[in-house]
Design goal:
This protein has 411 residues and is mostly beta strands. It has helices spanning 2-23, 32-38, 54-61, 192-195, and strands spanning 46-48, 51-52, 83-98, 106-126, 132-141, 144-158, 166-173, 203-204, 216-217, 219-228, 237-246, 266-275, 279-291, 301-315, 318-327, 335-344, 350-361, 367-379, 382-393, 399-410. 10% of the residues lie in helices and 50% in strands. It is globular, with a radius of gyration of 22 Å. The chain starts with a helix and ends with a strand.
Length: 411
């Protein structure tokens, strides 16, 4: 009965979204603040929200500027307030399976409908030269208020204005490859390279329960980044970043002896190459410094080396991504991760995708998570999405089945 009520509520939410499609302005786009400022559609920068194409990656690295604009606006001269909002309603179905079936099987399941998250997002270049840029996110989730990405960037320390050859960025932000990061997930399920290895983007906060649903915790960092963009689409584009960061969310937060100190920063470096506009390859290296209680010394530290390589290709309506990531571990059990993902985007209304994510642990059980998704865009800024994932292994005595349906609206 509860599951039936949940499905009725989801159908009502979808109907409400459909009504909004009839009354909302059709030029409204995903992350509308940028769209309103630049007067460009979301497809200019996104393959499928929030995944960035080459134009979107250029725009972000350039401090939210298109170089062809050549001049920007002072804050008091902006036509629109550089502020957007995102509301996400989620219906979930969870089932754990154990045993071999029949009378020995032990199955448990539950379902829930909730407002999963509300976010306020702001970002803009500052001044007519765009010498500085700012970006920030405030989110409200499960009764808590948190700061997501929040950073400032000084642009164009070298090279032509608006081309982003050399920039300096400081604050809380996504440390990852330009084309593969947690903030660009079309399939909302976290990557193992993020949640287990801590290589791609934010970490979870160590919340008790399903780690894939825990609130994300960004690292604080100072970074030098830039890009060299080819003049023609067939030319090579190089993107790089190096920085130091303060690891967070790597250890249980209920033990003071396991909390990282500000005096123990990590280091990272990334490089990505784009060629023929639709093909990317990249590499990332991170060195975390974490507390290690297994050494038996209070506040003992251990440096963990992590690296990864990935490639992505866009062929017609398909976007295929492959990645390999490896991390040392505090308990000497190195982690290896293999990930493959395919998105099919036949038109502006539909996105269908699947991901297989596998993790190997030395001297411990490995795990595989398979996720399938489908999305329907009601308007350019309102969509419904469903996901189904199956998790096998990874130190679990049960197989986990998770169904998710989302209604996402951006304003």
């Amino acid at each position: 009965m509860r599951f039936r009520l949940m499905m009725y509520a989801v159908m009502l939410s979808i109907a409400a979204g459909g009504l909004s499609a009839l009354v909302a302005p059709q030029e409204a786009e995903a992350i509308p603040a940028f769209s309103r400022q630049t007067e460009k559609s979301c497809s200019t920068c996104h393959s499928a929200f929030p995944k960035l194409n080459q134009t979107g990656q250029n725009f972000r690295t350039n401090g939210f500027r298109f170089p062809e604009d050549k001049e920007w606006k002072d804050v008091q001269d902006l036509k629109h307030v550089p502020l957007s909002a995102e509301i996400e309603v989620e219906a979930e179905f969870n089932k754990d399976r154990s045993g071999n079936g029949g009378s020995n099987a032990n199955n448990s399941q539950n379902s829930l409908l909730k407002i999963d998250e509300i976010e306020l997002l702001a970002g803009t270049p500052l001044g007519k030269t765009g010498r500085a840029s700012g970006y920030g996110v405030v989110n409200f989730a499960e009764g808590n208020v948190g700061i997501g990405q929040a950073y400032a960037q000084i642009n164009d320390l070298l090279g032509a204005t608006g081309h982003g050859l050399l920039n300096v960025k400081a604050g809380q932000f996504d440390i990852a490859l330009p084309f593969l990061s947690h903030s660009q997930r079309v399939i909302k399920q976290r990557y193992y390279a993020q949640s287990q290895l801590g290589i791609l983007g934010a970490r979870d906060r160590g919340t008790v329960g399903d780690e894939s649903e825990a609130q994300e915790f960004y690292n604080t960092a100072i970074e030098i980044n830039g890009q060299m963009v080819g003049e023609e689409s067939k030319d090579l584009t190089h993107r790089y970043a190096v920085g130091v960061f303060q690891p967070q969310g790597l250890n249980p937060t209920n033990n003071a002896n396991l909390t990282n100190r500000l005096g123990d920063p990590g280091f990272y470096a990334t490089y990505a190459l784009n060629f023929f506009e639709n093909f990317n390859i990249g590499a990332i290296y991170k060195r975390d410094v974490v507390n290690n209680a297994t050494l038996g010394v209070p506040d003992a530290k251990k440096a963990l080396d992590k690296f990864g390589v990935a490639g992505e290709a866009k062929v017609g309506p398909f976007i295929a991504t492959l990645g390999y990531f490896r991390s040392e571990a505090v308990n000497a059990r190195d982690l290896q991760n293999y990930m493959g993902e395919v998105l099919f985007i036949p038109d502006k209304q539909w996105v269908v995708g699947a991901r297989v994510d596998h993790i190997d642990q030395e001297l411990a059980q490995s795990g595989t998570r398979t996720t399938a998704m489908g999305r329907y865009n009601i308007t350019p800024s309102v969509f419904v999405q469903a996901e189904w994932r199956v998790t096998d292994g990874l130190n679990q005595s049960t197989d986990q089945l998770r169904g998710r349906a989302f209604l996402v609206a951006l304003f």
